[in-house]
Amino acid sequence: MSTIEKSFINGDVIIKEGDSGNTFFQILEGKVGVYKDYDKENETKLATLEQGQYFGEMAVIESYPRSSTIVAEGDVKVLEIAAEELKEYVSQNPDKILAIMTLLGDRITAMTEEYDKAKKALDEARKKNSSDKYSGFFNMMMKQSIYLSSKNFRLEQPSAEALREAADAVSNAGGNKGETYVQGRVIFKEGEVGKCMYILHQGKVGTYSHFGEVNEIKLAVVEPVACFGEMGMLTGEARGETAVSEAEGTQVEIIHPEDLPELFKTSPEKIDMIMKNLSFRLRSITYDYFKACKEIAEYSTER
Fold it and tell me: What is the average per-residue pLDDT within 133-137?
């Protein structure tokens, strides 16, 4: 299947939740709605996408069933890109690599913000006599139909198998190892604006909140082969954590946005790993969000 243009009218279902998919789309004209449980009692609209944005890419990146239903809102024209055409598409449009990664990064940021609100509301709901403290979030759930969707929570926690396979491919490919750090060296600091990302090839990296302060919290440990710092690069926002080398001879590859097109040509397995990592993070935070909403919905029945 080649890259082709398709047109839809208002109400047309472009892709359906649960279907398998080996193509993704870019909106050339118009806008589409993104839904969970479309055309069911617990239908939930998750987002509206407009001209220039992509959808359906996660099914191609991770070979997962479609995670949502996409519906045309008015007249819509899209470019449909088959998975096997992705390399040619990106070769002809090298800027699209960063565009797709940035799209995933923006979605992760938005869903993380929603999850943080849900988690705060859930923490309040767990406290004794706290029903009024989460009423605002609960009312939002009702308004957006998340209450109904979360009561029938059916999302599956994503498997990390695709990440492991992608990491193995990068490990076997070898290539540039970039910088080497001694144990205890700070790689980047919380609050700095992210201008690059990293692939850890050897050693170990710890990520911290409030590093070196009395309220220091260790957030995660990164081990080979894995990428980190990509969200800061994609969003251009201040980094939310400090990354520290935790082993002698920790080797990292440094990747800037302008490196991505050439990296796709020379080491496509690295681009694949970064994409899979972003897709996995988005699936994971979406799962956590709906799980929290489900628990809030269960608390509401006890009010």
Answer: 65
The fourth-level CATH superfamily of domain 176-266 is: Jelly Rolls (2.60.120.10)
Rounded to two decimals, the pTM is 0.80
pLDDT tens digits, residue range 162-220? 889 889 999 887 666 689 999 999 999 999 998 999 999 999 999 999 999 999 999 99
CA distance 31 to 297: 31
Q: Report the alpha-carbon distance of residue 98 to residue 46 in Å, rounded.
A: 23
Q: For the chain, what is the mean pLDDT?
A: 85
| Tokens encoding 127 | 């406290």
Q: What is the mean pLDDT of residues 21-49?
A: 87
Residue 37's pLDDT is what? 83
Phi, psi of 180 (to 5 degrees): -120, 135
Backbone angles phi, psi at 215, to 5 degrees: -100, 25
For residue 199, what is the DSSP state? E
Rg, Å, the chain Cα set: 21
CA distance 102 to 99: 5
Topology annotation, domain 4-93: Jelly Rolls (2.60.120)
pLDDT of residue 56: 87
Phi, psi (deg, nearest 5) at residue 182? -80, 165
Token pair for residue 243?
Answer: 């990354």
Show me where the domains of the chain are located.
4-93, 104-154+282-300, 176-266
Nearest by Cα to 253 from 218, 224, 277, 275: 224
**For position 272, what pLDDT does the model report?**
87
